[in-house]
Amino acid sequence: MLHVKNLKVDFEVDGRRIRILHGVDLDLEEGETLGLVGESGCGKSVTCSAILRILADNATVTGEVMYDGTDLLKLPASKMEQIRGKDITMIFQDPVVYMNPVKTIGNQITEVIHLHEKCSQAEADKKAIDLLTQVGIPHPETRLKYYPHQLSGGLCQRVMIAMALACKPKLLMADEPTTALDVTVQAQILDLLRGLNKKLGMATILVTHDLGVIAENVKRVMVMYAGVVVEEGPVDIIFKKPAHPYTEGLLNSLPKMDGQEGDLIPIEGSVPAPDKRPQGCCFGPRCKYMTDECLKGQPKLTTINGTHRCACFHPVNGTFGGQE
Amino acid sequence: MREKLVEAKGLYKQYALKSDKLFAKRRYLKAVDGVTFDIYKGEFFGVVGESGCGKSTTAKLILDMEHPTKGTVLFKGRDMSTLKPKEWRAIRLDMQMIFQDPLGALDPYMCVGKQIMEPLEIHNIGDPKDRKQMVLDMLAAVSLKPIFYDRYPHELSGGQRQRIVLARALIVKPQLLVCDEPISALDVSIQAQVVNLFKRIHKELNLTFMFISHDLRIVKHVCDRIIVMYLGRVVEEAESDELFANTLHPYSQALISAVPSLTPDAQAKRIMLHGDPPNPIDLPKGCRFASRCSKCTPRCLESEPELVDVGNGHKVACFLVTGKEGINAR
Amino acid sequence: MHVKYFLVKTLRAFITTFLLVVFVFFVLRITGDPAQAMLPDDATEEDYIEFRQLWGLDKPLMEQFYVYCKNFLHGDFGQSYKDGRDVFEIISQRLPKSVWLMGMSIIFSIVVGLPLGIYAALHRNSFGDRFIMGTAVFGFSMPNFFLGIMFILIFSMKLHWLPSAGSDTWLHLLMPMITIGMTRMGSYARYTRSAMLNVLSKPYIITAKAKGANRNRMVYLHALPNAAIPIVTVIGTSIGHMVGGSVVIENVFAWPGIGRLLVSSVAVRDLPVVQAIVIIMGLAMVLANLLVDFTYGLLDPRIRVTAGDK
Question: Which of C143, C148, C141 is nearest to C101 (CA)?
Answer without folding.
Answer: C148
